[in-house]
Design goal:
Layout (H helix, E strand, L loop, with lengths): L1 E4 L5 H8 L9 E6 L13 E7 L4 E15 L2 E13 L9 H16 L4 E7 L3 H9 L3 E12 L8 H5 L2 E4 L3 H5 L3 H4 L12 H10 E7 L2 E6 L5 E7 L2 H13 L14 E2 L1 E8 L6 H14 L4 E6 L6 H7 L2 E11 L19
Parallel strand pairs: 5-6, 13-14
Antiparallel strand pairs: 1-3, 2-11, 3-4, 4-5, 6-15, 7-14, 7-15, 8-9, 9-10, 10-13, 11-12
Length: 348
Amino acid sequence: MRVRPATASDNEKLIAIEQLTPQGGQIKLVSERKDYFFRAKKFADPVFLVAEDEEEDMILGIMGVGPAAVKLNGETRLGGLVFDWRSNPQAQQGLPRHMFRLWQAAQKEVIRRDLDFLFGYVKEDNERSMGIITRYGAQVVETKEFLTIPVHARFCRRPKEVEMVGFTPGSDEKLVNAADDTHFGSLDLFPDLLQSTATLEQRKRYLLGRFTFRGSSVKVWDTSEEYTNRVLSIPKIFRLARPIFKVGSRFLSLPHIPNEGDQIKVWQLFDLVVDQPSDLNPLLEKVRQAAVAKGIHYLVTALGREDQGYEQMAAKAWVRLKYNLFAFPLKDGVPLPKPPTYLDVIYL
């Protein structure tokens, strides 16, 4: 076994590994991306490694680390986001040796790049990955919930208010370069938005725009042309319920029940600012109308319990997946992030 940098020639094998690891409980979804290096390209000089069994010509595992300049206790520090860290399910079971080897190799690379700390998001029930990172000294500092919200039923039945919602497209340079210091600038992990050309290009490409209503606002991130989820299987009872849900969703916020083989597309909502609680429904309704027009099935936002708007958004969610934010200082004197932290949509 050897650990080496991933190359473009690995793309098909990496995509195949991702398709072997479906997500979800009753409805099984498999992630599909045109380019497995989709996340790595968001960072300048990323670490992206594979563990390979040379005899079997098999990739056993993958791990990426993206350098990111972020705030930490009021100072700008160079962190490393751990992403796409996974094991090939066709490799040995249990706690594979290659996952440790990947972590060790990645750690050497980030030290060579003079990063101050590592951080990342791991699904709460992923005990194997959590076991490895805590063994090396990482600590869980916060939990974020990914809230999945259906877009069928209206959020607001006051059309005059919905018409008042404004929209600034993502192509607006001021919006792309705007750091929302007023609302988020004091949070740990808030990024330096001008940190690299690679990251700026990705922000321009996937930032759909910002919706505003009075003093409230939310931004939309659209990667649906690059990254979707395909339905592998659904229970029989869901198939029987589909016609009922389709009719009922005109009046209630019921989830979309897909057919097997369908693609599920989502928009990520981020940088949510709620000035008045009554602002949220008109704001979301305008987003919902735009999503339906584009064939989007769900809105997803990632919030912690201490984040603004959490209670209101959580009440609208049909699915709530918890992810642990872990951090691992690489130098003396580097503090752990303090919640509530900022979750940069570029990481998703």
